[in-house]
Amino acid sequence: MRARPRLTGGTGPVLVVLLVLLVALAFAGPAYAEPSGYLALLKRAAPLVVLAVGQYFVIVSGGFDLSVGSLVTAEVVVAARLVDGDDANTWWVIALLLGCGILVGLVNGLITTKLLVPSFIVTLGMLLVLDGAVFLWSGGAPRGALSPSFRVLGRGSAEVPVLGQLPWSVIVLLVVVVAAVWFMRGGTGRLLLALGDNENVVRLAGGGVDRLRLLAFVLSALLASVAAILLAGFAGVSAQVGDGLEFRAITAVVLGGVLLGGGRGSVVAAAAGALSLEALFSLLNLLGVSGALESAVQGVIIIAAVAYAAHGAGLRRMLRRPVLDTV
Amino acid sequence: MSAVREQVRRRSGAPARARTFVITPVVVVYLALAVLLVIGSVLVGLHGGVLLDHGGVLNILTRGTVLGLVAIGQTLVIVTGSLDLSVAYLVGLCSLVAAETMAGSTAMIVPGVLAALAVAAVVGLVNGLVITVLKANAFIATLGVALVLRGYLEHNYTGPAGTVPRAFQHIGYDRIGPVPVAALLMLLLAAAAWWYLRRTRTGYHMYAVGGDVDVARLSGVRTGRTIVTAHVLCAVMAGLAGVFLAGRLGSGAPYVGTDAGYDLESIAAVVLGGTALAGGRGGVAGTIGGVLILSTLDTIFDDLELDSFFKDVVRGVVLIAAVALYARRRTAGRSA
């Protein structure tokens, strides 16, 4: 009983949407006639999916993380300056970025739990601080360059025995999603879900509410760092790389049917939501819809998805009630 | 255990809390503003300038006018337990509608303003209806509408458009002594919004809905209508901000609202003013204090010739610190 709603309840509709979009892509563009087209899509979508998984942890436990977009920008700019085109710097910078991510998550989480500030405000403040701090430090514009070995993660491919060439970002993506699913199936993951549903119950049941919340923020920021590393490799250095990513990640999570305010939705659905969003953008692109209208479409879809989630539940209940009566 | 006890304490302490919350945050905000003005004056003085001279006051008030207009509307929405993320794009859109309708002719000033406000009201209505009828979360609903507006703006405009007649540009620049006329108008509207929230039935309903939608509904409040009203009023205030900016800039600019980040900035000002993000508590007086604190900070940084990026950092820290302070005063209650 417990496993069923998590597999079907929220995940079904978004998987259908995703499937429809993928099939539509095959008809719309010749590039999608073979697997390599879809692989490219997966590669393009990897940063957003990773971000959405991170955002999922925070949203499902009843919060928001608005700071991920500026965290991505900050880390890309920092990486470019520190690596400075030298391969020798790659690994310690990556470790540093992940460490910074954890630190930002810790700060977000500690302020939310210890100072009792709503997470919306905390992460909004963090957004301002990160935006300002990184450009204060770099002097207004990104400087330096990434090394080739740093960019491999974002755009290079690995030789995999059976499958042939597989982009590194796709491998990272798969690892993150599998790890997240495994985590959400464990005790801590379930407590996180319960926390979003009813905080008092978790507290009375002896669950460490503050520790769980802290964990959600740390995971979100850590995954944002991973996304930053992928994006830096894929798209290169710019001061706008993270603009609007926080809202895009939230859109993706909500598109996956995850309830804002927490307590409902699966991590697979969140990842599928992110992939659907990216597939939709590719489709619009192929159909010749101007890039400017992309956000308008995104806006309509996000409203439709939430309206469906609100009314779909009622519809399903209405359909189910007679069945229960006969039983 | 403690959670239950807190609940009980919260219930029994309700009247006392209501009294402290009507007064305290507002007092705190204005005290903070006074302290900020003193510290700022000293710092600017050490730097060899004067903070509160003619130009300084003018600067603070001018900066505060647009943000104030948007934040007054945002206060109504947040008190009702909702949120409006679409105001930044709406400000840009309304500046364009006003400037393009006026098209440089003095006779078209009134139709231009009315057209802009009508567009704003429609957007607010859409926001409200999406939230109440489609039952979408306010965050998502207004984010969706914001994205739609953004798509429209990006598709149709690449830069400034329309012209505002010279007669209308006076609204942006005229002043009485050191006080800009527009700032006075903003304060008048703030007073009107205060009166509306505190002295009218719909205003009380807004607090009721923001406090607890279900209780409000069971008490006979038309919650849907209240939420829609709040959103329409908020959008109209954003529309006014757009019209004022068109008057100041001499034309409409699509990204004038987003460049200044009025969506998140106005929420920050409201929360800084002691209004609870979860709704049901707070008011316009605190918001104006919050707006003045933000614009004073800006002016101090300008006078000290500090890096503009430093401003963002301080702003973020101030915001978090302020809300943490309010949260401390509240014994329990946490919303994510």
Which value, in Å, is the CA radius of gyration of chain B? 20 Å
Radius of gyration of chain A: 20 Å
Q: Characterize the biggest β-sheet of chain A.
A: 2 strands, antiparallel
Tell me what portion of residues of chain B adopts beta-strand conformation: under 5%
Give the CA-CA distance, first to last residue of chain B: 21 Å
Instruction: Quote the distance from N terminus to C terminus of chain A.
Output: 17 Å
Helix/strand class of chain B: mainly alpha
Brief overview:
The complex is a heterodimer of chains A (327) and B (336). Chain A is mainly α.
What attributes characterize this protein structure?
heterodimer; A: 327 residues; mainly alpha; two-stranded antiparallel sheet; 14 helices; disordered N terminus; B: 336 residues; 15 helices; 1% strand
Description:
The complex is a heterodimer of chains A (327) and B (336). With 327 residues, chain A is mostly helical. Chain A has one domain: ABC transporter involved in vitamin B12 uptake, BtuC (Orthogonal Bundle), CATH 1.10.3470. Chain A has helices spanning 3-9, 11-28, 35-60, 68-83, 90-114, 119-138, 148-155, 168-185, 187-197, 199-204, 209-235, 245-255, 267-286, 294-326; strands at residues 157-160, 164-167. Chain A has a two-stranded antiparallel sheet. In chain A, a hairpin with a 3-residue loop joins β1 (157-160) and β2. In chain A, α2 packs parallel to α13 (267-286) and α3 (35-60) runs antiparallel to α11 (209-235). The radius of gyration of chain A is 20 Å and the shape is globular. The two termini of chain A are 17 Å apart. Chain B is mainly α and 336 residues long. Helices cover 76% and strands 1% of the residues of chain B. Chain B contains 15 helices and two strands. The radius of gyration of chain B is 20 Å and the shape is globular.
